[in-house]
Recover the amino acids of this structure.
């Protein structure tokens, strides 16, 4: 994913510029990794592919390593460059974003683990359609959030953040469906609960993607929109 | 909770000192609030007290307001004071800590909501003993984590972080118990699932408390211990 941080001003120090670009590149790499982890996790789950699930459940360390690395570089930039204004907001934005990316990685890891243990379940039940829809919407929301971050695009961030509501609704509806299934066929409780945890993880990934969108808005507009309504957020649209 | 940040050096600027103390006081207030929210949430659940549950589920906005306020003050300190060394670590630690405190608040809010909807369930089932134990351990872990933060006590932070393992085990065991219940009495699935979400929220609160402990270690030792094993962490003990 190419970095087109429109707001990144040219600094008198080329080296400083390089440092910021370098750390941003790593955030993009980390974003790409978690996006792949989530996509693979969902695919492993839907295709009952235990090999892929195993891969997802063991690859999270790469995301974790990047988190620690980026975190350290950000603190060093703060200490040595003492950034101000939009540079400072950028560094704070990165520190926050990688926390959410790391947690998305954690959720993907969980989905991978459940995919392994669910792979032996004989049939692909009807609710897999709903799960597939939820998975599709969450992975596309995550992709859009990372894209909004890469382009520091406020409008895209606002539009993407708004998708979280739909995902919450889909999760609630799938949860109700799963409860009905469990009541009708109690022998399936153990497996269906696992599907429910996966759905929950997807819903949480939507929350984290929304957080990333909010950081983009903070970065560009200098306004903290955490805990503000969608209406208020949309007023910041260009 | 009195603030005894041992590492807080006297600055030439009294005003700068006051700013740091002021923001630390707010973190303590925020910590006190989420601690109360979690305690009340668990109590509402166990005592089937829908009034208290309602209170918990609507009081989270105070935690959110504090998060935004503290976050803003930290960014201002970074911009105006350009802190270095342990002061910089302190500000970064605060920025990270309040994110976890805010999420603990979110989990408490969820527990409050479930407490309301579970309050009408007629009997207090046997698994409430396990849930009570889990609730007790998580609230005490959270208390210890906030205490370690207030005193910037590395040893206490390491000891508290270690408790997360026990909490994870208790959650797993409770989850298995709940699954058995659902299989035996499918009519109870709807309610038991809610209890399972509450247990999950408690387990997540344990994770967040552990994060706070890790930030304390980072603050004092200057070493990022995220994603390192307990053994390695314990080597940092004094």
């Amino acid at each position: 994913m190419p970095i087109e941080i429109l707001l990144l001003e040219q600094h008198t120090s080329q080296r400083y510029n390089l440092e910021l670009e370098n750390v941003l590149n790593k955030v993009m790499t980390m974003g790409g990794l978690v996006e792949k982890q989530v996509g693979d996790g969902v695919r492993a789950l839907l295709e009952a592919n235990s090999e892929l699930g195993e891969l997802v459940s063991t690859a999270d360390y790469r995301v974790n390593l990047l988190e620690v690395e980026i975190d350290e570089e950000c603190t060093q930039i703060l200490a040595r460059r003492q950034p101000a204004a939009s540079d400072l907001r950028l560094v704070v934005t990165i520190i926050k974003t990688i926390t959410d990316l790391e947690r998305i990685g954690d959720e993907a890891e969980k989905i991978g683990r459940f995919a392994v243990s669910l792979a032996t379940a004989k049939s692909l039940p009807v609710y897999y359609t709903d799960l597939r829809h939820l998975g599709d919407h969450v992975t596309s929301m995550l992709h859009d959030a990372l894209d909004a971050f890469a382009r520091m695009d406020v409008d895209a961030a606002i539009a993407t953040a708004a998708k979280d509501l739909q995902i919450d609704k889909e999760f609630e509806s799938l949860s109700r469906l799963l409860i009905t299934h469990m009541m009708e066929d109690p022998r399936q409780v153990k497996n269906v609960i696992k599907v429910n945890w996966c759905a929950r993880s997807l819903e949480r990934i939507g929350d984290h993607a929304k957080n990333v969108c909010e950081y983009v808005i903070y970065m560009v507009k200098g306004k903290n929109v955490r805990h503000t309504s969608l209406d208020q957020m949309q007023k910041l649209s260009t």
